[in-house]
Please model this.
Amino acid sequence: MDAQDLTKLLDSVRSGSVSTEDAARRIQRHASSASAGGFATVDLHRRARCGFPEVIFGQGKSAVQIEGILRTLASHGETGLATRVSPETAAHLLQVFPDGRHDPVARTFQLAQTEPAGPTMGRVVIVTAGTSDLPVAEEARVTAEAWNCDVSLIVDVGVAGLHRLIARLDDLKGADVLIVVAGMEGALPSVVGGLVDCPVIAVPTSIGYGANFGGLAALLGMLNSCASNVVTVNIDAGFNGGHVAGLIARRAAQARVESESPR
Model:
């Protein structure tokens, strides 16, 4: 429950449409945290503090643990998104949440939306250097879409054939933020950064031969980018790229609405 929700609830109590007992129950339901089966303490105030609800990092968690955390989030009116979900875990979750959505490429699982998402908040464009980078790019896409952004994906336009990127330049225009996902030597974010006037979030992947060092070469290349609008997240961190892009895109959309409002 954020400040706007609380204000509406208090106004309803003042008008008499909601009893004080019902209001107390609603506020109690929106406690700051809740235990999920004794194995997790779920943060229920993250949306109010940070703008987005808690997301479950599925790697290392059992299917039953992820199920318990999702049920806790849902019971408190929060959306549920889990990343790094194995096929076996996804099969279990689809049995207990048949309306949920599993993306096998992104390795994500989402609970069904209980309320309309509303208008999209900002435009995010995701660019991949190669097809092998798709799992990380798809994780970023699912995350940014969960944050209600307008997301498009441009695939396999790496520096080995730069004409492929040049042919898609019009698709980059008007984006509030770009996410560029690349492995190997990690050169693509620098190239893209020199062509656009918006922030570029570089996501290095672990794709590459031995001297790629599991993504370390791409990470260092992106950190050393000469394009001044490029910032870098961790190796294979599609969620982080999508989350930060969602924050940027939402702020950009809000700024446009405010600038267009009559003064």
Remarks:
- The longest strand covers residues 123-128.
- The radius of gyration is 21 Å.
- The chain has a mean pLDDT of 88.
